[in-house]
Batch of 3 targets.
Target 1
Amino acid sequence: MPEYTIGSVRVDFPFEAYDCQVEYMRKVVKALEGKSNALLESPTGTGKTLCLLCATLGWLESKKAKEAELDKADEGTSEEARLFLQGRRESRTIVYSSRTHSQLAKVIKELKATSYRPRTCILGSRQQMCIHPTISKMQGNPQNQACRSLVAKQGCKAHNMVTEWMAANKQAATQLLDIEDLVKIGHNGGGCPFYISRELQTDAELVILPYNYLVDPKIRKSMTNLDWARCVLIFDEAHNLERVCTDAASFDLTSVRLSQCMAEVQSAIEYKLQSGANSSEAIHQDVETEIESFRVTKTILSNLEKAIAGHAFPASGEGVTFPGDYIFQLLAKAEITAENYELFLEQLLVVTQALEERDEDKGTGSRRSTYSIPSLSDAIKIVQRSMGKLSEDDPPMFEGYRVHISDGRKESAKFKSAAGTNFKRMPTLSYWCFLPGIAMRELQNLGVESIIVTSGTLAPLASFSHELQLPFKESIENPHVIDPSQVWLGIVPVGPSNVRLNSSYKTRDLRDYKNDLGNAIANFSRVIPDGLLVFFPSFVVMNKCVEAWQSPLSSGGAAGSIWDHITRYKQPIIEPRESKLFAHAAEDFKAKLDDPSYSGAIFFGVCRGKASEGLDFSDKAGRGVIVTGIPFAMKTDPQVRIKKDVLDEDCRKNSRSTEGRTKLTGDQWYRQQASRAVNQALGRVIRHRHDYGAIILLDERFGNASAMADLSKWLRPHARNFQTFGSAAGALTHFFRKRRSVIQVSAEGVGGGARAGAAKEEGGFAALNVPGVGLGNVVGSDDAPRRPAAVGIDVRGLSAFASKLAGSAGKSEKSRPGFGQQLSDMLAMTKKRKLEGRSLAGTSSRVASNKAPPPQNQAKEALKGKAKVTSKANVPAMKVMHLAKNLYSKEDYKKFILTLKSYKEKRITIQEFTRTLKESMSYDQTDLLRALEHFVVTTDVAEYRKLIVEQK
């Protein structure tokens, strides 16, 4: 493997590194050597994860080698001094975190491609790792409690085998096992995957985990094996880190949840009354005391419910917001104060234990999904922790919080319909953290050596750093490793009918906007091969557009729908709201993409959704990505509104931070959140060095200077702001031709709204305003015919199209004299296949006049594809060849000839022949495919006709 020396660190890399990769690794090593923090942005597809692993593990190996030399040098020192020095040189741990377990599995895969084999463990939850037939079906706290209880009784067979398996597999730590591997081991009798991973953590040099394990204090506290002062923390795919940090430090306590807590306390009281009735007098006295404490707890919860509900709410229904310290006043009304937090938490724990004891007695533990009381305990712990300070010079953490109480009228209506209870309001108490830096500085205060934060979309780095409240000595915004010819980025402000494309709330519900947006997507679906991704600002906008496109364009439905035109070229998949359904949608997309009977697939998703944030759409899975609008968060969302207020208030207090960095305003944050979501979606299209694809921004606002500046740095040089739809479609066609795509759109038309001057773009794109062709008869809200859209040639418009071509000779390199007449003649001749005896008149004579008639002995050979026969019976075939020559590029015409030859020589089946024709021809209409029937042997004609109908 190639070797790079960075400072004093030797780094092994699996292949020759690009300059930007070496620079990235240099920044990582500098941060590690200097025990400082790093904020590193490198586009998706630049090998960021691999660089991060190789640089950190190379540094770790370097440290181990140096310490081994020091240990050797210590041989002459006293035993006491040697042990002291060794203690100071204990091995370090790299804690590598990412957002999801699928991303962590990718880290393991990348690590296997390197020469490094550190002692490694990957951590996950019991939900992912438990293989017990009963406990694995449980969730949350009941699952954790049931597991611990069974383990304590030595009743779990899988757990009992862990020690034996670890003893027999001493090299397991260096085998780079992911969660799937551990679960397989468990199912094969090797022991519990969950506890094996914990055993591997004991002396691991590389610990891989989701990053909420680090920022959530409750989870972090359980990782007792880590010496934080000897740790390096890595946050990969950290573009969502701010939100994860604030979510981990916040809570929402609904009225329903609080009611459930009171009901659970009552259940505990009833259980204790029943169990105490049959006990001895001494035990009965203890039970009475416990029951009385439960009743006090229930009273406290009832008072808290009244305190929350007792607020006056504005008529607007926006709820009420208070400073962070108001939470203490509110809890004090229920007699929950700083003096008795610990006592109250202990009491909630006793109640939970009573409920678990009851379930165990009844044998219903495995059927109990979760309790509400633990979530109340977590909320109190968050309040308790917010009273502290991050340092002596800092204000209390609660100053970065806000208390919000919603009026709960909507929730009340839902609850009433579900339970039949008549509540006027069911308010929710929220205690929201608006300073993500609180969680990050807590990590820093643990004494960790370095924190490395990296992703493909972090820019602008200054504001990201400001939000995390950490000093980042090392930073970088890397370019991409690809060649400029591998990516195409176009900002398209208008649709085929010249309707302005703007997805703001003022225009996104207009019928004209939705129709032209759909027409534009239909056009690009034809131009872009294989997989196409379309991202909307939200699920609401996506669903409204899809619903509009699926509606017939005319009252009678004869014109079909925009959805029909989109799905003519791509099989659609729509991202589901429910997370549990997403995996199926992703598999469905892949299946349609791999199905040879389809010409491609289109995935409709949303910015900030699962598809835009984490899926890998490499190669043909993502040849193009379309973003239909800027995904601004709803300004009416109380969290968004309060966040902006908090930042603006901070700016008013001090225009510059103590480090001299400009403060972040509310509006800047608001815009940057949207742009990061866009950049993350755009990152789906280029996934590795040899990948290529197109990016299309279908919103005129992307052309603004501020929006352009918010694009990822590596994308900005590629951006082109087109003035017409036709010019954009032509340039995109040219891009895919240069990338040797099989998609050809040389004669595709654009809407009449496009300027006449845009009739020809650099790729030979002819903008033809042909009535009756493609989507030319789109019907708008006034039921009047619209200007035609740039979609494929419809059979009904072929004659007009032929005439247009005939009259445009010399205007396009694809148009030749008499071509339109030839096309019309050819289509007329394909109505029947009985060619013999047909009068071909003058048209046939013109085509064959310069050819000598073939010898008679070649007639049979021609049927076998071994010789060309120029006879009256063969003239239609020649016309088709002439047509192909006009329609195809030089490269695709060669492909057509080779395919025909392979079929005639019986090296490919009729199915393969038909599929290749479908993929390589410019027009996928049945009539044109039927024209090529002249080349099909008689025994295959029936199958061929069936296939062209199926593939229409």
Target 2
Amino acid sequence: MLTKKRLRMGTSDSVKSPTNQDGTRSWDQARRLRNSLAHRRRRHGEVYKARDVRLDRIVAIKVLPAHLSENAQLRQRFEQEARAISSLNHPNICTLHDIHLRQGSGGQAGYDVDVDFMVMEYIEGETLAQRIARGAIPLEEAIEIGLRVADALDKAHRNEIVHRDVKPGNIILTKSGPKLIDFGLAKRRVTGSSESDASAVTEQKPLTEEGAILGTFQYMAPEQVEALDTDARTDIFAFGALLYEMLTGRKAFEGRSQASLINAILSSEPQPIAELRPTTPSRLGRIVRRCLAKDPDDRWQSARDMVLELSSLSDEVDAPSPMAPASRTGERLLWTLALMAVAITGVVLRHSGTADTTRLSVSLPPGHQLLGGSSALGRIASFDISPDGRNIVYAARSSLGRQLYLRRLGDFEAVAIPGTEGASMPFFSPDGERIAYWAGPGLGSLRKISIAGGASTKIFDGNFRNGGSWGPNGTIVFGGPQLSRVPEDGGVLEPIGTTEPNSVFSWPQVLPDGKEVLVTVARRDHDRIVVVSLETGEARTVLEGYGSARYVSSGHLIVHDVPTANLLAVGFDLAKLEAHGAPVPVVENVYASPRGFAQFAVSETGVLAYAPAGQGGNALIWVDREGRASEAWEIERGAYTHPRVSPDGSTLLFLEIQTTGASDSDILILSDGGEPVRFLSSPFRELSPIFSPDGRYIAYVSDESGRSEVYVRPYPAGNQKWAVSTDGGQEPVWSRDGRELFYRSGTKMMVATVRLGSSFEADRPRHLFEATYFTDGAHPRLRRRTGRPTLSHDPGQRRRTHTS
């Protein structure tokens, strides 16, 4: 005996109505409710959840209603589906247990009912269509689903059955894997079919009704649309459309009308997957393209081909990286990124006190230059590695400008991420599917974007910060004079703990429990690693004399030893938040930014990306109108930036970023034939120095108050200081007549009237206007005739135009 209840197919939810004690409904109760309750129909009937009381199992019953069973064609398809499923025994194909036909053929006796029905395996889960509706599927999961569906199709094709309606709605995702269902359109002939599909070109509607179609438009092969013969390669086309949709979250073929959709299927190519999801291996893109070939002869010729391809690709994706032969034990070549290099190192830490490492080598595309966290300051490594150790995101400058690039370690191509122009300091979300980065004025807007593609979203507007970390609880923590946090979806900026005099909090990392953050407290003469509670703000010192710490799941901290430029591993008890044991060498000669921050990133799986040392510094050069460059002064290369020439052309003003500890820089003066002289040396960060038009004063920015403000000092004495800005200031520029000093305060353009007499005087700043601005270089430029500043205007972070 069977009892049953009506079910919304693809979920475990049922229509609420009087039931038996076990939650099912009797046959007679279900019959009476069938025509009065709203329900969802499947292709050849209505689906019920039922209990087989004889075998004590839950099953699904697919019923062909009496009014439809009178249609000979529909009844034939119903029987056809039953025969197709009954011949297939595969873990990824829905199983048929029994069939009952009213007129006595093919079913088991004992069902006292006047309807045709099939008793099938009950499948609990959501459809692939429902899963895709939430967004593109992670790469490894998409490949695994595709592999199992391809294997199911291979089983069907080997039994001379073509499904002819492969689509996300006909695949249910269960705990044990995907299940291919609904063989209502299946046919027996695999190749050389003479059966015409002339009824195939109409809109989608339930196939239990008259005038129904043979397939769903978005997944139809061209031969289906044109009502030509179909074979196994027709399923391969639909499978390619399914793979495309899993990887991108979009349908391969779309149109505003039925006619435009048909035209797209017959004559258009889908947008390349790599443009929508840059992390997709190029090989997978080629697999999908071949599935979607218009001519069946140009497609994969069997589902078995796809099984082999996807299986091989899955093995490559599972591997952390492509390996190259070692030049000597434990070593391989470095992955060079133009002027800097990044090596990918698999770190295996042993209790014996040693660290085994392996390295690989792959080059960045020609013309790419890896950028530091700020092209001027180089304070934070401008690359990150995903938690699973399989992807790297980096900021680089090419002929197209600065933006983010993604590189799968199992692939050989780096792909630009659209919509990240001007980005820097990227870091991954805990699931590795999104990236946060800084962009906008002064790198002052934190944004996020999916690695699968799409538009970026602003999280908040703020000043440049010293690194960021995306915690498992949806909180993003970043450094600066004080630790701060903000929700991943945007919100109020919240300070964490307290500030420390002359110190900067850098390289934060939210620990796995989401309750503490590991961070480097950097001073000019000393670094230390602390753990800060996100609940109380309390800080406790873990290690003295090291910086740039990262926790790895082996129970270690990877730390940077500034004097030796080496990375070390130190044991760390995550429960007690205490370091233990002697440091173990991991990597030698790691590049550190001019401020002493090591340029590396590490995944949860222990894969390390770092920049080797020995990259050299900047040279001060002249460039003539023809582009010929020559060194301006014979001085050693160094961490120089922001060069500015005095009005009379005799003196050079520039910054030198300090190579130790905290976020500070010195202002240097260099005259013809002389050695550099330190005009201003302090434990604070100075930026954007610029001479006044008469050459007697220097305006600059300093964070000595805890935030960036504009100051002026006399030149050459430098023994006095006047504050100009009152509510934050950046990027000062003098008017050509020296009577005004312009600067930016966030999105506000400010100006102060000044007097350059025997002593400097400045009136209270005035607000000129407000908009989103950034500058093309160190600070705004002046128009030659008007003497007014020229800035770049970026409304909504979209299109850049120049405004004066």
Target 3
Amino acid sequence: MGGESAVTEPRSARTGSSERGSRKAAPKKKKPKKKFSVKRMMIWMFFTGAVAIVCAIIGYLLIALNGERILAANQDEFVFAEASTIYDADGNEITKLYRENREYVEFSKIPKLLRDAFVATEDKRFYEHNGVDFFAIGRALVKDVIARSAVEGGSTITQQLAKNMFLSHEKTFFRKASEASIAVALENKKSKDQILEMYLNRIYFGKTAYGIQAASELYFGKEKLEDLDIWEIATLAGMPKAPSRYNPINNPEKSQERMAVVLSLMVQQGLITQAEADEAKAEAAKYEPPVANEEKVTQPYPAFIDYVINEAERVSGLTEEQLRLGGYSIRTTLNTKAQQIVEKEFADPSNFEESVDDQIVQGAMIIIDHRSGAVQAIGGGRDYQVKGTNRVLDTRQPGSAFKPITVYGPALETGEWFPWSTLRDDKKCYGNYCPTDSNRVKYIGPVSMEQSVKESRNASAVWLLNEIGIQRGLDFAKTLGFELAPEDRNLAVALGGLYNGVTPMQMATAYSVFANGGKSVDPHAIIKIETRGGGTEYEYKAPRAKQLIEPETAYYMTDMLQSVLEKGGTGTRARIDRPVAGKTGTTQHGVPGLVSSGNRDAWFVGYTPEWSAAVWMGYVRTDAQHVLKQSSAMSAAMFAKVMGQAMKGMPVTSFDKPGNVKEVEQPPKVGGFSVKWSEDQMGVQISWARQSDKNLLYNVYRKESSEGQYTLITQTSDTSVLDQGVMANSTYEYYVVSYNSDLGLEGEPSTKVSITVPEPTMESPSDLEDPENLENEPADDLPDNLGNLPGNVTEPDVTEPSNTNSNDPAAGGNAGGNASGSPNSAGGSGSVNGGSNAAGSTGGSGTGGNTGGASSGSVEGSTGGTAEQPGGTNTAEPDGSADGTAATPARGSQPTGRSSQIAPKVDVNQQDTESAAGTANTPQP
């Protein structure tokens, strides 16, 4: 057994070997073919369909999710960019602010025929699909394959909305896929009516018009959509395909061709009849563009609108971009009538000086209702462009228009100076600063503040600022809103010579304080800003008015500024048919090397009881060829032209007068004024009529022809004085004014009269009588003052009279001796010789150059002074006629013989101090 088992093979090995051998030997058998089975086919189709459905669901979900993602990331796009509307003070629309000219219209306000026309033209299956129209897509694909390019869009209204809101206008597969996904998402979030409403308000119609409302107004001038005719509806419905090509203004033929296609579609879909379509075509042939609405594209009143935008940004915090996109309603203070007049007058070249080249004389004007601070109108410049330089806010030198702000206003505010206060108008230097006046203005010495304002005198203005102090002037200017530079701390600030300059807006605001009784004025151009939903974004709240200056100061300043427009003032051309107060101002050209006269800036700032206004004119760049040849006359005339027209029809009112203003009646003008040479007393006899008020004093002024200013020579209560302080061959000019010493107020100057003192014509020695025989001559042939001759009279040598004033009050024979002396001394006369007024007791006497001391011309009773006075001032007004000049004999030694009498000669050269032109002391307006 053990042996068998050792040689026996395993079973498996034997079996495997035998099977391999048998397989190789046996032939292969063919498998039978499977037969077609319906069941199998159904299974396959079910499986394929299921996969397709799953893929479609997944694809749809992906598309929807992608659309949802895009919508979520662009929520702001649902807030439509709608134009903001600006209204004037009366609620009338002025213009629109927009980046895209759009006015949103709710679905209910869009006529059904208009909605249906767009659906029929752009997407007739709009109410049947879910945002993507696969039939339209298929049609588009076929056309694209045939054309071998993307020529057919196949987009639904929803897809067009998606494209306009979120995508570019490229025709690519990826853009179309995104467009479809957004359309699906929109359909899931919005109803069909909401989608159509958004579409009609967003679609572009060309020429900056976005939305159906803007297009209706632009192309047909119709603000209400229900007023659109069938042909107009069809025209608009055909435009979205190609707004520029089918624009009825630019391409009327193409537009009518496209309109015919739309009308045909409307007929096919039963929206209108064929007869209505034919009638619409006939009406369209008569189309004329609405010119007025076309012009609305150009923004009206650009300077005012730019000012409103800047103010809106400042007061509301809104940006300009938000204002142009947010659909706000902005109610402004604009007075459209005034604004139109400003722009009309600024467009008239005759209102400005003619330039030598294309650099025109520029201008600016601002009008403010100082009762409320409401800006009425703005002239930002000639040919002002949107976002240009608004010259109402541009700084320039104000010249004399600044005097009320730094000189007269602060002086009045002290309570120590009044319009009747006397200033000094003398040629004077203050250190290295020597103010000058126009060549047409002569220095007149004493001058009232009102006359200084009226005639725009520089010397007296600087003198007054020096009196009250520069700091007081600067503080007053700051109170009125001016931030002056440290460099302005000098007397030149009196004449408006500023380091940085001021703006017309600032000047109008400052003068508004005078007009408003001294109370603050807050200029503003916006009343209210409302959101598109009617909510209040901003509303103007007037700040509580502050009493910046005393009411009396404002009243006195107004009273003086009214005189500027009266005869003799510098602002007569600003007169209109209602009360006006104002001030002119000019600045010198300052061109190096240019010696001719001319100005850099010309102003008129003024106000009525209702409105304040500032007008500026000048070149932007001043050089030798570009200087103003006139003064402020054209600026004043512009004020009158604009304000006169703009305020026409408004009630005429007067300036308010505070109840506690001191009533001051100016002393009356002196009449019956005359001057003549007194041969007997060897002096100028000055006389006048006594005024009704017996408490008045009289100031007598004199000026020698070579002198630049008048000098007060005496103050008296009498009605005549004798001026013995004159020189032979000299001409003197006199005037007299009544004076209220309690108020320190002078009246209006009398007329001025000049008198010339010639050499006396002496008889020859051979013709002289023997002194011993004088007693044989008739008494009435003797000189009037012969009885006063001292001692024995002897014949003197015939010599030239002395013209030298020894200033010796007792010196006889002196032509100009002072009329001083001990008070109440016997035999003293009150004659006025060439000294200055000095304090002392009344009734002082003194001997003059005359032999003897005639009592005529006595100044007894004069207040606070001796008879020692400077030589004369006022001139005669003989018989109330025109002023004249009397040539008088010279004073000197009295000859013992009879001297020939020289008749005074009248020189009619005196001028009224209120004369507007040609006077010695009144500037030209």
